[in-house]
Write a structure and sequence with these properties.
The protein has 252 residues and is α+β, with helices and mostly antiparallel strands. It has a domain of 81 residues: Arc Repressor Mutant, subunit A, CATH 1.10.10.200. The protein has 9 helices and 10 strands. Helix 2 packs antiparallel against helix 3, helix 2 packs parallel to helix 4 and helix 8 packs across helix 9. The radius of gyration is 18 Å and the shape is globular. One of its GO terms (molecular function) is DNA binding. Keywords: Cytoplasm, DNA-binding, Transcription, Transcription regulation. It comes from Gloeomargarita lithophora Alchichica-D10.
Length: 252
């Protein structure tokens, strides 16, 4: 499996979530602020807000902080939320691996400078908008933590229906058209399935095979460095890596 899913599995193996909990909460807060600002501040009528809240709760964010973020987005705590805007950055990691970054920022110059510095540090290059976007397609992504076999996942995909599914390690997920995400999530829940993360994501349409551990290590360090930035919300990449190379990368 390539790109986003591979990177997500690597992050789970590295177990960095607890150490970065404060930073992750800040990212969730920004997502809820923008979701509440651009739609209804009521999660019952705002799917984006509802899914952001569910992710925040799953990570252990307090109800008080969730409510504060929603209130900011609704304009009840001043106009600070108005300065946040969604920006996409694109570039190449070492060896031509395409990287697509989504950020929420109140200062484009600061964010661009931090992202460019991360690329430069790990042998990559920040490019112009559109330079790698054509190598990704936006899809709906629904993780299904209660599904324990590929046969069950396939059965769920056929019932909904979904456009595809992905199964690797602990990750079972259905792929949908982005506009169908909310409808498919509701259909799955109606059929008794438990739905975990529900989001749109960038899925690579072509991949670069990383077969050298030193190369892979540089790419992973860049992705980590980008995700450590406060303004960055998501990072997607179009690499693939076999298990032996991945183990070698994780060893150092």
């Amino acid at each position: 499996m390539a790109g986003h899913s591979k990177w997500a599995n690597i992050k789970r193996q590295k177990a960095r979530v607890d150490a970065l909990k404060g930073q992750i909460f800040a990212k969730f807060s920004r997502e809820m602020i923008v979701a509440a600002r651009t739609g209804l501040p009521d999660p019952a009528g705002n799917f984006r807000l509802r899914t952001a809240m569910e992710k925040a709760k799953a990570a252990g964010m307090s109800q008080e902080n969730i409510e504060r973020a929603i209130a900011k987005g609704a304009g009840l705590l001043g106009a600070d939320a108005d300065s946040l805007e969604a920006v996409r950055y694109e570039g190449y990691a070492l060896g031509g691996v395409a990287v697509l970054i989504e950020a929420l920022t109140d200062n484009r110059n600061r964010t661009a400078g931090e992202i460019r510095a991360a690329f430069n540090k790990y042998g990559g290059n920040l490019g112009e908008t559109g330079c790698v976007g054509w190598m990704f397609a936006q899809v709906g992504w629904l993780e299904m933590p209660g599904v324990t076999s590929e046969d069950d996942l396939l059965a769920a995909a056929m019932q909904v229906p979904a456009t595809g599914y992905e199964w690797e390690g602990e990750t079972a997920a259905l792929v949908t058209e982005p506009l169908d995400l909310e409808r498919v999530a509701a259909a799955l829940q109606d059929q008794g399935y438990r739905v975990g993360a529900a989001m749109t994501r960038w899925q690579p349409t072509m991949t670069v095979a990383i077969t050298d551990a030193d190369w892979g290590r540089q790419v992973l360090r860049l992705l980590e460095g980008l995700e450590d930035l406060d303004d960055v919300q998501t990072v997607s990449a179009n690499f693939d890596m076999d298990e032996r190379t991945l183990v070698a990368c994780m060893g150092n």
